[in-house]
Amino acid sequence: MLHTLRHRLGHPVETTLAFLEGKWRSGILTNLKGRLFQTPRVQKVVSRWSNEVHAEPSLDLAEPVEVESPAPAGKPSRGERPSPEAGHSMELYVVRHGIAEEGGEGMRDGSRTLTEKGRRRFQKTARAFGKLGRKLDLILTSPLVRAVQTAEILAREARHDEVSVLEELDPKFDADAVREALAKRSDKRETIALVGHEPQLSSVLAMLAGVPREEIELESGSIVRLDVSGLADGAVADPRWWLKPKGARKKGLPLSKKSRGKRKSAESEGPSEPPANNEEEQGEGS
């Protein structure tokens, strides 16, 4: 039975039991756990994963896999929860759905599903996200099928039990409607993921980060993290990083090729004239 559970669900024993505890409410599970962990073969398997034999499984599985460099003064490190004292109240993860099938004659847009390629690619991205050890308090998704499927993959890799629909993530709503709905649903939660569509999500990112909408290019299956200090109109968020569709992580926002070129040109050209009191300014910056 253990072999069947592992290969059907694709999880180790401990994760499988965590999954079952989140879905099944039955006394059978208690008996199953006790019997499984009394057998020497299962104890050896668990020992290989955790380097020690457990009488009961440990379900605290979200362990960060990267070493974090010290954060600048006034900013939390990536592994920390945002706090009001640090000027941040929420980590917001903006997720565009994976690659979806093309709409055809007679097919409703809301019924389009992820392609096999879309599923595979986003699973890689979601798995990379899961390895970062972030605990999501809430996953909100558009009601459209392709977004719901994407949210379910993210929930599975992030070990989150539930996905909720936010009607305002339907692409027929604008960015202001999403912000207002998110403010109502956030309820002091510290980490929230929004799964939706373009061009709505780029508009949300632009509004929160205070950048022009045309500078952002959000690929299918991307995940963008922002630290949000407030959802009031005019509040500016801090873009931290984004995960590309195959799991590579980049700093800042996902910019269009044209915007990246402009920024590189501006950085290479530098100021046209040296600033006044140049010696003093250099001394302060060293």
Set down the secondary structure blueprint.
Blueprint (H helix, E strand, L loop, with lengths): L1 H8 L3 H11 L3 H10 L3 H11 L39 E7 L19 H16 L6 E4 L3 H13 L6 E2 L9 H12 L4 E6 L3 H10 L13 E6 L9 E6 L5 E3 L5 H13 L8 H8 L1
Parallel strand pairs: 1-4, 2-3, 2-4
Antiparallel strand pairs: 1-5, 5-6, 6-7
3D structure, described in words:
It is a single chain. With 286 residues, the chain is α/β, with parallel strands linked by helices. It folds into two domains: 2-50, no CATH class; 84-263, 3-Layer(aba) Sandwich (Rossmann fold), CATH 3.40.50.1240. The protein has ten helices and seven strands. A seven-stranded mixed β-sheet has the order 3-2-4-1-5-6-7. Helix 5 (116-131) runs parallel beside helix 6 and helix 7 (175-186) crosses helix 8. It is globular. Mean pLDDT is 74; it is low at 1-26, 52-88 and 272-286.
Question: CATH superfamily assignment of the largest domain?
Answer: Phosphoglycerate mutase-like
CATH class categorisation of the largest domain: Alpha Beta
Q: Order of helices and strands, N to C?
A: HHHHEHEHEHEHEEEHH
What percentage of residues falls in helices of 4 or more residues? Answer: 25-40%
CATH topology of the largest domain, which one?
Rossmann fold
Using only C-alpha atoms, the radius of gyration works out to 22 Å
Percent range for β-strand residues? 5-15%
Features:
286 residues; alpha/beta; Rossmann fold; 7-stranded mixed sheet; 7 strands; disordered N terminus
